[in-house]
Amino acid sequence: MKTEVFTQPKLPYAPDALAPAISQETVDYHYGRHEKAYIENLNKLIEGTEYADMDIEDIIRESEGPIFNNASQAWNHIFYFFTFSPDGPTEPEGELRKAIDRDFGSFDNFKKEFVDAGVKLFGSGWVWLSRDQDGKLFITQKSNAGNPLTDGLTPILTFDVWEHAYYLDYQNRRAEALNKLWDIVDWEIVGNRYQ
Ligand code: MN
Questions:
Q1: Is 0.70 topped by the overall pTM?
Q2: Residue 2 pLDDT > 60, yes or no?
Q3: Which of 5, 26, 81, 146 is the most exposed place for a label (fewest CB within 10 A)?
Q4: What is the pLDDT, as a whole number, of residue 102?
Q5: Which residue has the higher pLDDT, 175 or 4?
Q6: Ligand 1: distance of its center to the CA of 144 in Å?
Q7: How far is the CA of 102 from the centre of ligand 1 (A)?
Q8: Ligand 1 mean position to 98 CA, how many Å?
Q9: Mean pLDDT (whole number) for 90-116
């Protein structure tokens, strides 16, 4: 996507559609205010720079400092919120299911390892499931605005573990907040990203 005039896409579900996993209040603050601010900051920061004509993924790979932070946070939040739906399939199928079973032993074990990685990430950040060029899957922890694009990997799933993602609904209960997200992850969307 071009970032020259980067805009915030409208969510493909109603703001209350993800409750109780994510409340309408959290969607409104997290996507409506936090994410909006990252996009606005990014647009201001890149105006008149070499980054103004670049795809946002290339900005993430090539920038650092405030431009990286705002570009990556803008991209990460769209990727995160566009993973969910109130009525999608709750388990992976096909090639992604085979890869999860191969690389993590089972879907249940994958979910446990993914949440554990998110719970153990110290401070703010993101836990990611990504694939390499051969289709091998990796769980990685990234602090702050981090994104596995900078490691040459293709992200397919992420959970936001910044406190702003869950504090209104779960206060300090990060593990509970992350485990509830399994109710709303749309595995058809995640599977399409694996192709
Ligand atoms: Mn966030």
A1: yes
A2: no
A3: 5
A4: 98
A5: 175
A6: 10
A7: 31
A8: 30
A9: 98
What phi and psi values does residue 85 have, to the nearest 5 degrees?
-155, 155
Torsion of CA 60, 138, 81, 63, to 10 degrees: -10
CA angle at residue 106 from 182 to 144, to 5 degrees? 50
In whole angstroms, how far apart are CA 135 and each of 26, 91, 92, 138, 154?
Answer: 34, 18, 15, 10, 9
Distance CA 94, CA 191 (A): 8
List the structure tokens of 142: 């990234």
Which pLDDT band holds residue 5 (cuts at 50, 70, 90)? low
The region, left, alpha or beta by phi > 0 then psi within -120 to 50, assigned to residue 11 is: beta
| CA 104–ligand 1 middle distance (angstroms) | 27
